[in-house]
């Protein structure tokens, strides 16, 4: 039986999971599952079709029949397509973020999404980012990463990211929004956010993105999931792999 390699990257909002995922995806030319985009797309469907979370929960199986979500790299950009519509920007809106967090608490919805997420597992490999990738969706993954950073640091980064996109937001308001989403992620009854027992925990607070990437790739090499090849790094213009450290 062909075993397709998987790297899972879990962690709280704004910790840099998707940036790490995209960088590894580009380097290894593996497929990407951005599971948060699935919850966000469902939130978008609710908003546009004017249905509430309860109605979504009741009709989730039916909705998923025609739910065609894809992640594509085009002109160096990571694009989320729902059917053939580019929804990359619209699903980042605050109201979508907020609603997706409530949708993610619903057991019927999470259960209905189990197979949908596993269907992204295709050759040559998959990098899956979310909250329960290592614990629930791909428990057999050989390489599991749990990224962490303080709420303050994540708020700072998100504020900067929004600023680059031309949005000015109040730090305190953003801090409280992320805090609320964290609470829902950590405390929900089904699939709460937590590191898998066999995950490598990387605290990204005081190290650069390059170090986070290096630590992840070094770990994947130690687990024999990828072959040590320094040419691998040329695409991103970064140096050789350094020693990772557990935190
Ligand atoms: O990672 P994100 O911010 O795009 O996720 C959007 C919401 O979906 C967030 O509130 C957490 C939730 N989520 C989840 O519960 N499980 C996942 N595997 C991914 C995201």
Helix-strand layout with pairing:
Blueprint: E1 6-10, H1 17-28, E2 31-34, H2 35-49, H3 53-65, E3 69-74, E4 77-82, E5 85-86, H4 94-103, H5 107-118, E6 126-130, H6 133-137, E7 143-148, H7 151-164, H8 171-187, E8 200-203, H9 209-222
Parallel strand pairs: 1-6, 1-7, 2-6, 7-8
Antiparallel strand pairs: 3-4, 4-5
Helix pairs in contact: 2-4, 3-5, 7-8
The structure holds 2'-deoxycytidine-5'-monophosphate.
Residues 13, 35-36, 39-40, 100-101, 104, 130-132, 181, 185 line the site of 2'-deoxycytidine-5'-monophosphate.
Question: Which terms would index this structure?
Answer:
247 residues; alpha/beta; Rossmann fold; five-stranded parallel beta sheet; 45% helix; binds 2'-deoxycytidine-5'-monophosphate; Cytidylate_kinase_dom; Cytidylate kinase; cytoplasm; CMP kinase activity
């Amino acid at each position: 039986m062909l075993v397709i390699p998987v790297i899972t990257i879990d962690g709280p909002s704004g910790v840099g999971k998707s940036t790490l995922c995209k960088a590894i995806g580009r380097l290894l030319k593996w497929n990407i599952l951005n599971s948060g985009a699935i919850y966000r797309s469902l939130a978008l469907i609710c908003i546009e079709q004017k249905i509430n979370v309860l109605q979504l929960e009741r009709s989730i199986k039916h909705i998923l029949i025609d739910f065609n979500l894809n992640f594509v790299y085009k002109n160096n950009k990571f694009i989320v397509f729902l059917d053939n519509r580019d929804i990359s920007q619209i699903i980042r809106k605050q109201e979508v973020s907020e609603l997706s967090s409530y949708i993610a608490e619903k057991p019927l919805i999470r259960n209905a999404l189990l197979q949908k997420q596993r269907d992204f597992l295709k050759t040559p490999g998959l990098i899956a980012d979310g909250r329960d990738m290592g614990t629930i969706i791909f428990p057999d993954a050989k390489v599991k990463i749990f990224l962490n950073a303080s709420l303050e640091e994540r708020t700072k980064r998100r504020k900067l990211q929004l600023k680059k996109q031309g949005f000015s937001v109040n730090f305190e308001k953003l801090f409280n929004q992320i805090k609320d989403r964290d609470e829902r992620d950590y405390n929900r009854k089904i699939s709460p956010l937590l590191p898998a027992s066999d995950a490598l925990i990387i605290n990204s607070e005081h190290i650069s993105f390059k170090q986070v990437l290096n630590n992840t790739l070094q770990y994947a090499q130690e687990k024999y999931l990828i072959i040590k090849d320094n040419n691998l790094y040329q695409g991103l213009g970064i140096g050789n792999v350094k020693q990772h450290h557990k935190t």
